[in-house]
Amino acid sequence: MRKELLACEDYARQLLRSDVKSVLEAGGYIFNSGGKRVRPGLTILSGKLFDPDDSRLIPVAIAMEYIHTATLLHDDIVDGASLRRGKPSANAVYGNDVAVLVGDYMFAQGVSTFATFGGVEVLQRALDAIRDMSEGELKQLEVIGKFDLSEEDYFDIIYRKTASLLSTCCEAGAIVGGADEQQKLAMRKFGEYIGYAFQLVDDAFDYVSDTQTIGKPAGNDIREGKVTFPLISVREKLSPFEKQKINHILNKDNSHQEEVDYVRKLVVEKGGVGETFNLAREYIEEAKALLAPFEGSKYKNSLMEIADFIVARTF
Amino acid sequence: MRKELLACEDYARQLLRSDVKSVLEAGGYIFNSGGKRVRPGLTILSGKLFDPDDSRLIPVAIAMEYIHTATLLHDDIVDGASLRRGKPSANAVYGNDVAVLVGDYMFAQGVSTFATFGGVEVLQRALDAIRDMSEGELKQLEVIGKFDLSEEDYFDIIYRKTASLLSTCCEAGAIVGGADEQQKLAMRKFGEYIGYAFQLVDDAFDYVSDTQTIGKPAGNDIREGKVTFPLISVREKLSPFEKQKINHILNKDNSHQEEVDYVRKLVVEKGGVGETFNLAREYIEEAKALLAPFEGSKYKNSLMEIADFIVARTF
């Protein structure tokens, strides 16, 4: 895929053309801050399962990264984040004002690329994903500190904030590749399932990893009052005292490190992190099964590898 | 136009459908905070000069207001504004996080409506306008405190941040109405010229009006270091001492009210506000002249009235 990804980077540079300095600076900063290009990669590979016109597939793939980057810029404002991928976040370097506006620019540039190269179907799916992501983040804000967040609501949130765009990448690739309805649905579901797995693993790492490794402060979810699957999966095993204590910590304004570590340790001991990785692995298996009907190819193999990598990654 | 505008409000409510509470609350708050619906009005009237299908024109018109509303939400974050149309701004009530996300939602919802009802041409023009608005705001941030901002740069900024969307409204109406290329160009220019006039008058009011009347703090531009046409137009008439003093005030972090009033008074005395209103009036005359070739109708008359209202308004 090297050739296609290089073509992507090339196209990405073309898209980031503006006579306004801060678009180039802040846009370039965040766009080149070490993202793994998972979304363009999924889009291209999904397309290559079929018979795509590369002159359409590459722009659509890179537009997915534009949308993702815009979302990161805006999410960092929402979270008041100061670190992203181990580097100062764009809002920390350039300010919230530049981050919000450059995000808007990248949304418009990405959407315009979908309209030109993706056709109406890809465009509408991508717009659905943008809506999903903003609604997902908003819903997450609404349930901050909610100890008894239902599993259903948790999955609704992670669908919207993570799985929807990954699902859109895979489906868009299939659309551009000329897949039939059933094939499109399979790719859409493939993206959705690896999306759940991706977010589950992310949520697990908040419990067991360290800041150095994940490139953002570990334990942040607890500090911010976010109830995620590791906690949800062990909630029923907790004593009334433990429940009350965690509830208190989740709703405190400035939790001490010891308090955060208390929650982390307890959830790990009760098996919450193991449960979460197990569920992620199940989703990955389901996702891979969806690819079974497709003819073997290096592209299909790469999709399988990406799926496996999501649960095997150590960051 | 009452019928069409009521249909617009109806359609706007349909667009604001989400199962996420804060979308409805914050979205509804800003959308119903007393906007004059200038953009949907211009879109509809421009369309009605020709032969539009209302079932397409109304959604396109309201999508313009969605885009505008999204921009207001994001601009208030950029400006750190606490007042908008005389009421607490959405970011002040709901927080920057909700404001940025609901803005994103409204962008996506508006753009999706263009894609469904406006066709590719309207969609691409609208996306151009979104890029223009973010670039315009960014460029404005880059020249904060720049006493010798060129007239050319000033007009480039106000084109992008204000005139581009108004121009898009008029052109989009014409496109949906089935106008030919020359007619579309005329409507696009009409919108652009009234856009310049609109912003010029806005910039003049910052010098002569009061907070009560304009619904946001008067003198804000000076306080924030924004160099606008009233100042540009009198710059050459100032003594070296006056220039230096103004430069200092523009670049100060927390200017006293007396300092702001010093600049306001000086610019008014030198004729800068008069100059600005005169130029706005010239643009309005140019804009109205562009409508001359079109057959007389109540719609054309309303467009003329809107144009006149822009310079005659007292807020």
UniProtKB/TrEMBL annotation, chains A, B:
<keyword id="KW-0479">Metal-binding</keyword>
<dbReference type="GO" id="GO:0046872">
    <property type="term" value="F:metal ion binding"/>
</dbReference>
<comment type="similarity">
    <text>Belongs to the FPP/GGPP synthase family.</text>
</comment>
<keyword id="KW-0808">Transferase</keyword>
<dbReference type="InterPro" id="IPR000092">
    <property type="entry name" value="Polyprenyl_synt"/>
</dbReference>
<dbReference type="InterPro" id="IPR033749">
    <property type="entry name" value="Polyprenyl_synt_CS"/>
</dbReference>
<dbReference type="InterPro" id="IPR008949">
    <property type="entry name" value="Isoprenoid_synthase_dom_sf"/>
</dbReference>
<dbReference type="GO" id="GO:0004659">
    <property type="term" value="F:prenyltransferase activity"/>
</dbReference>
<dbReference type="GO" id="GO:0008299">
    <property type="term" value="P:isoprenoid biosynthetic process"/>
</dbReference>
<protein>
    <submittedName>
        <fullName>Polyprenyl synthetase</fullName>
    </submittedName>
</protein>
<dbReference type="Pfam" id="PF00348">
    <property type="entry name" value="polyprenyl_synt"/>
</dbReference>
<keyword id="KW-0460">Magnesium</keyword>
